[in-house]
Design brief:
Chain lengths: 145, 55
């Protein structure tokens, strides 16, 4: 069986209080029809049920938002916000460290005021055989069999 | 460079994960700045967070 394994270094961030942290983040190329845009950094987050993009990207991909069609979504800490499903699937691809790019299609949820794109269970984790967050080595490992 | 405090809250177009090619207060302004560039698909478009996350 041919297996593709790709490692992606965590990215360094300075928090407002000066703390330095490293987050599992990658860039993804997203497309719909003639529109293509590399989006990043996107947070790899198993705590999110869906892959979530800010509303700004809906405008870029020419996706209309139906204000009556939303899913109430709860954030950590208890806050509620509205998620609007994309009307069509986007095509995603990422570079796999020397292998052919990994490509997949998925609908996403668009949210207002959410400024960090999130790669969640649906639309990211369910597209790979393994997603490993290696905290000790500060690397995310993606396995595609 | 992408993660420096001076960029917090801005939309950025970044090359090779660290070189900021363009920045703007709004997504639209940023897209206008990079449209037509030959290397546009190499630029990652994102928002430089100024938040601490829990989730």
């Amino acid at each position: 069986m041919f297996m593709q394994v790709s490692e992606h270094k965590f990215r360094k961030h300075e928090l407002p209080n000066g703390d330095i942290i490293y987050r599992p983040e990658i860039d993804v190329l997203a497309g719909f029809q003639q529109f293509r845009l590399k989006i990043g950094p996107c947070l790899i987050d198993s705590g999110s049920d869906y892959t979530i993009l800010p509303l700004e990207y809906a405008e870029y991909f020419n996706h209309e938002i139906n204000e009556g069609n939303f899913l109430e979504t709860r954030a950590a800490g208890g806050g509620l916000f509205k998620s609007y499903p994309s009307e069509d699937a986007l095509t995603f691809s990422i570079l796999m460290n020397g292998f052919r790019p990994k490509k997949w299609r998925s609908n996403v949820m668009y949210v207002e005021g959410q400024t960090t794109p999130i790669l969640g269970i649906i639309g990211f984790f369910n597209k790979f055989d393994e997603v490993v967050i290696d905290a000790a080595r500060k690397k995310a490992r993606l396995v595609d069999k | 460079m992408f993660y420096r405090k001076e960029y917090a809250g801005k939309w950025l177009a970044v090359k090779d994960e660290k070189k900021v090619i363009a920045s703007a207060e709004s997504f639209k302004d940023l897209i206008q700045q990079i449209e037509g560039r030959e290397d546009k698909e190499e630029l990652a478009v994102g928002h430089a967070s100024k938040h601490v996350y829990a989730g």
